[in-house]
Amino acid sequence: MYLYKSFTHLKTTHSYHLVDPSPWPIVAAFAAFMFTTGGVLYMQRFIGGWSLFFTGFIALLYVMYTWWRDVIREATFEDTHTVVVQKGLRLGMILFIVSEVMFFFAFFWSFFHSSVAPVYSIGGVWPPKAITTINTYTVPLTNTFFLLTSGATVTWAHHAILARAKRHTIVALIFTLILAILFTGLQGLEYINAPFNISDGVYGSCFYLATGFHGFHVFVGTIALFISFIRVVLNHFTNKHHFGFESAIWYWHFVDGAGVKHVTLRYFIYLAQRASVIFRFHACELPTSSFRLYNPSILSAQKAVISN
Question: Closest by alpha carbon to 267, among 141, 183, 159?
């Protein structure tokens, strides 16, 4: 009995935050499962796929709201985000962004694997002959300009809050949010008018998976910046205690970098076309070229010539 009372009145002296039990991790997991499963079912044209996808999307938004609400309460009103906790949060955000870099690296890998050495089943050229590509100097270039400009305006907002210039922070965040909304709108317009879809072979799959996930990350970053904007208006941040805003800025710069790389590597296909021509030339001239592993038609033709 004495030990029980001692543990019930135990006081800790460390600086770490022991969070209360929360339902949001398991709810977020179920919402993400519904969102992804519904998306796959919708793309495969199963009945109810869109409803499951939309329900999961709404559930994710709800979890984002409630979870962020609890974190804001802990940081702003309960004063649980000590210096030690903030160091842990920064490390966690850095590791999260690194994992996101690896996530997009997989898409770039698939793009180079398919474009640098195109297989015979798509005609041995990149882009495939049946694909009409999107003009780089229209929506893609405009969206790149919007992204780069938003990176500059969000940096302006960061420097403004460090200098305790609340009005400049608000103005800079408004510009950033406008640019983010313009980017998302033009991305949707590009999808509507695109001359190909996700079912058009490896080109359509690479394009829509990479740009679609990037657009989703822009959407998430926009929400994070909007929440930060509201908190700036409500005086939740100081020049030394604003990691919620700082993490959104880090995330937005990651989105900027990923977007620029997408435009550079995915829309500007001239280098990929030239590379595919060079590889095909060397494969025909040099029978020992490793490219024959990627082009079975050339290898079979070489074997036929040798046997004759």
Answer: 141
CATH of the domain at 130: 1.20.120.80
245 and 141 together in one domain: yes
Residue 7 buriedness (CB in 10 A; 0-12 / 13-18 / 19+): exposed
Within 8 A by CB and 6+ apart from 289, the residues are 282, 283
Residue 212: inside a domain: yes
CA atoms within 13 A on the CB side of 24: 15
Last residue of a domain, one of 51, 80, 109: 80
Is residue 74 located within the same domain as residue 98?
Answer: no
Q: What is the span of the domain harbouring residue 46?
A: 19-80
One domain, residues 28 and 177: no
Each residue's pLDDT, cut to its tens digit, for the chain (308 residues) gives 554 445 454 556 667 777 788 899 999 999 999 999 999 999 898 999 999 999 999 999 899 889 988 988 888 888 888 888 889 999 999 999 999 999 989 988 888 888 877 888 777 787 788 788 887 778 888 888 999 899 999 999 999 999 999 999 999 999 999 999 999 999 999 899 888 888 888 888 888 988 899 999 999 999 999 999 999 999 998 888 888 899 999 999 998 888 776 666 656 554 555 544 444 444 444 444 444 434 444 445 444 444 55
Check which CATH number belongs to the domain holding 40 and give it: 1.10.287.70
Q: Identity (one letter) of the amino acid at 16?
A: Y
Residue 5 lies in a domain: no
- The answer on 190 and 144 residing in a single domain is yes
The residues, ordered by sequence, that sit 6+ positions from 196 with a Cβ below 8 Å of its Cβ are: 131, 132, 203, 204, 207
User: Which pair of tokens denotes residue 55?
Assistant: 């329900």
Q: Domain boundary residue among 59, 80, 101?
A: 80
Which string of DSSP letters, residue by residue, matches 117-141? S--GGGTTSSS-TT--PPPTTTHHH
DSSP 74: I
Q: Which residues are CB-neighbours of 51 under 8 A, at least 6 positions away? A: 38
Predicted TM-score (pTM) of this structure: 0.75
